[in-house]
Amino acid sequence: MNMRQIDVFRAIMTAGSTIVAARRLGISQPAVSKHLKEIEESVRLTLFERSAGRLLPTPEAKLLFDHVDRMEVGLKQINRFVDDLRESRKGRLSMIAMPLMMNRRIPDLLAAFMKHHPEINVVLHAHDVPQLFHAVALGDADFAIDVSGREHEDLKAEPLIDLHIACVLPEGHRLASRDVITADDLADEDVILIRNLERYPLLLEHVMTPSRVKFRRRIDVFQSVLGFQLAARGLGVGIIDLLTIHDLRYPGVVAVRFEPLTKLEVVVMTSKRWPTSKVAKAFIESAKEHFRALEPTLASVFRKSP
Questions:
Q1: Other residues' Cβ atoms within 10 Å of the Cβ of residue 236
Q2: What fold, for 92-159+265-302?
Q3: Strand 54-57 vs strand 217-221: parallel, antiparallel, or unpaired?
Q4: What confidence tier does 305 reach under pLDDT thresholds 50, 70, 90?
Q5: What integer pLDDT is reported at residue 201 of this predicted model?
Q6: What are the φ/ψ torsions at residue 160 (nearest 5 degrees)?
Q7: Is the Cβ–Cβ distance between 204 and 243 less than 8 Å?
Q8: What is the mean pLDDT of the chain?
Q9: How far is residue 235's CA from residue 211's CA, in Å, rounded to a whole number?
Q10: CB of 93 within 8 A of CB of 142?
Q11: In this predicted model, which residue has the larger pLDDT, 210 or 153?
């Protein structure tokens, strides 16, 4: 049975006659009778018996109608689901993000986004650089948020936010009153560096090499949050991104500009092979708006803590 035959069969079953069914379908009564004959021939069953001008459904017709009725409910559910997809009310959001984004920004963004998209499912993948490209390129993840410089031929990258690097140290440190700290100022200091961002050490080494700065001690950590906390406890001068400083700052901890200016360019990467889902596009746009509003406020970290 095709969809038109199903519509005619349903109309006859609910109307009880071809005349009323024709009126509901907006076609002639002979056309309904013709469709009914074609239906019975296609299913090779007698679906109705004629009695006193009425069509009486056979037991087989009643069983078929129950199935058709369930199918109609299923079609309505499918149509509702399609509407939900169109309005981004349903779907799956799968992302990979660098740790410094997972500390606060992704949770904040998700909390706001899911107020308007409460029925979507979310998958947060671990930030594994070798797998990141494959996951996004193959569509296992909708997008990745990472630093630029690690682009892949199967991915397209859009700028999200530029994060400058600054120095974090406790009040009372000999450099805490400076307006600017240079690489030379860090000579014979304990220094804390973040090592999980592959491009980050390269940028810093490029800055440090000309002055041939020798640290007293170097502490390598793999998360910016940990680097900040170690610096706050006086274990060294933390070379930390402004976003982490902005989100974690508290009294007794000072942020000082680092020169020459060094920044991380954070990008959102999507697949060139596969279209991006409506839900993912909506989330990415909300993230862009969020970071556009946030970026001008990051310089507030340089106000001394009371």
A1: 23
A2: D-Maltodextrin-Binding Protein; domain 2 (3.40.190)
A3: unpaired
A4: very low
A5: 54
A6: -115, -50
A7: no
A8: 83
A9: 23
A10: yes
A11: 153
pLDDT score of 169: 94
Q: Which DSSP symbol is given to 256? A: E
Q: Which amino acid is at 116?
A: H
Distance separating alpha carbons of residues 37 and 30, to the nearest angstrom: 11
CB-count exposure of residue 18 (10 Å: 0-12, 13-18, 19+): buried
pLDDT of residue 79: 61
Q: Which two tokens stand for residue 143?
A: 């997008």
Tokens of 298: 């990051």
Out of 2.60.120.400, 3.10.150.10, 3.40.190.10, 3.20.20.140, the CATH code matching 163-264 is: 3.40.190.10
Q: Is the peptide bond before 260 cis (omega within 30 degrees of 0)?
A: yes
Mean pLDDT of 277-288: 91
**Over the stretch 71-87, which tens digit does the pLDDT of each residue have?**
766 666 666 656 555 65
